[in-house]
Design brief:
The protein is α+β, with helices and mostly antiparallel strands and 283 residues long. It contains 6 helices and 15 strands. It has 2 domains: 151 residues, 2-Layer Sandwich (Gyrase A, domain 2); 81 residues, Elongation Factor Tu (Ef-tu), domain 3, CATH 2.40.30. A 6-stranded antiparallel beta sheet has the order 11-12-13-10-15-14. Strand 14 and strand 15 form a beta hairpin. The longest helix is centred in the first third of the chain and has 12 residues. The chain is globular.
């Protein structure tokens, strides 16, 4: 696959928490959705911490680093995530630290120094955790356009906290949820959704030929709401769509509309779920 056309992009919306200590691996393994037992130094996974009811509280990247772990998370959610991890710490021999004053996060080309490959989609290249002074200035907008085009949700703009189940944010498609490792917080609800196939809504990429609709705009078909617009960049956007209602609309020949005009849904290349598309929109 062709890589997206950006060099190193500083991501000021991201922050870093470190987890160290002899119990660090077991502490995280029993909390988060990904299986980290076989994660080697320099390897990373996409993961999440859920509510007991199964909805996403925080999604993040977890990088193994010689006996400790670096959590690449939303800067806006960092304090709450650190507080939640501290709550679960109890007597575990774990040291939790806010590393945001020392290091920052960037999206980089794979050959640009010590970096870990983005565990979701290879086209996004790699991510780098490095001293802030070594990172270039920037707002990460080129990277943002790329991740929207590829259909990848953002912690702040799309997923939020306590709003979506992992399946709705496609964490099950992107290697962030293990259905084999055993218990984690919210595991029972998420496993039930997986085995019963009850995930009706998904975040999918979309295209708007006219002006992009604002985040939160309703998506309508045949006078009924079938979804919501999330983040957008130019004509590209992400949308949380009820896939069953989308299928009904396609079969009825009804177009999708937002306050800003028509919207066309796309199926991301990495998706293993079905997305109903009009024949003219099929790739």
């Amino acid at each position: 696959m062709q890589r997206l056309p950006f060099a190193t992009q500083k991501l000021p919306s991201r922050a870093v928490i470190t987890v160290a200590g002899e119990d660090a691996r077991n502490f995280l393994q029993n909390l988060i959705t990904a299986d980290i037992d076989e994660l080697k130094p320099g390897q990373a996974t996409y993961s999440a911490l859920l509510q007991p009811q199964g909805k996403i509280l925080f999604d993040f990247f977890l990088l193994a680093d010689n006996g400790r772990y670096a959590i690449d998370c939303s800067a806006a959610q960092k304090a709450d995530l650190l507080k939640r991890l501290t709550f679960y710490k109890l007597r575990a021999k774990v040291a939790l630290a806010d590393s945001d004053e020392e290091v920052g996060v960037a999206a980089v080309k794979p050959e640009a120094g010590l970096a870990y490959t983005d565990p979701r989609v290879a086209q996004l290249g790699a991510r780098l955790i490095a001293p802030k002074g070594s990172l270039p200035d920037g707002d990460g907008q080129v990277y943002r356009c790329g991740r929207i085009r590829l259909g990848l949700a953002d912690s702040d703009e799309d997923i939020g906290s306590g709003e979506l189940f992992p399946h709705e944010a496609n964490l099950d498609q992107l290697g962030a949820v293990s259905f084999k490792k055993g218990c984690f917080i919210g595991q029972e609800v998420v496993s039930r959704m997986e085995h019963r196939g009850t995930a009706r809504s998904r975040i999918v990429p979309a295209y708007m030929p006219k002006d992009a609709a604002r985040n939160g705009s309703e998506i309508m078909a045949n006078g009924k709401t079938i979804g919501t617009v999330l983040s957008s960049a130019g004509s590209d956007a992400l949308a949380l769509i009820r896939l069953d209602r989308l299928k009904d609309a396609v079969e009825a020949g009804a177009g999708l509309l937002t306050e800003a005009g028509p919207l066309h849904v796309r199926k991301p290349a990495w998706a293993r779920f079905d997305v109903a598309l009009p024949k003219d929109d099929e790739e």
